[in-house]
Amino acid sequence: MQSSSFAGTLTAVNFTNRWLFHFPMFRVEVSYIVNDTPIVVSAHMRTSADRVPVVGSRILVLTDFRGTTHVELDLSNGVVFEPDVTKYAAPDY
């Protein structure tokens, strides 16, 4: 199967005030460039409260011939995480 990868940047991280199994849920936006054209994609992100990336973090964007897009943190480029680990902690019910 043919696919492509691009270097992207996390441009928005919006907390949804929801948790899945105590993991906070976010709506994120990632920007990247293909053939000199800027593209912005939106995605849902689930992570742990101590691994919420900040805006500006580097993202790998993977696409395939069907138009499927997958985004993931580029850990090789020193991702910075939200320092307040309690900010997105799931409430105790």
How would you explain this protein's 3D organization?
The protein is mostly beta strands and 93 residues long. It has strands at residues 3-20, 23-34, 37-46, 58-64, 69-73. 0% of the residues lie in helices and 56% in strands. A 5-stranded antiparallel sheet has the order 3-2-1-4-5, with no helix packed on it. Strand 1 (3-20) and strand 2 (23-34) form a beta hairpin. It is elongated. The model has no long low-confidence stretch (mean pLDDT 93).
What's the short story on this structure?
The protein has no helices and five strands. With 93 residues, the protein is mostly beta strands.
Radius of gyration: 14 Å
- One letter per element, helices H and strands E, the order comes to EEEEE
Task: Label the structural class.
Answer: mainly beta
**Strand line-up of the largest beta sheet:** 3-2-1-4-5
Using the alpha-carbon principal axes, give the shape.
elongated
End-to-end distance, in Å? 46 Å
Helix proportion = under 10%
Question: With helices defined by DSSP (H or I, 4 residues minimum), what is the helix count?
Answer: 0
Strand content: over 45%
Please tally the β strands and state the result: 5
For the biggest sheet, the summary is: 5 strands, antiparallel
Low-pLDDT runs of 5+ residues are none
What's the overall average pLDDT, rounded?
Answer: 93
Features:
single chain; 93 residues; mainly beta; 5-stranded antiparallel beta sheet; 5 strands; elongated
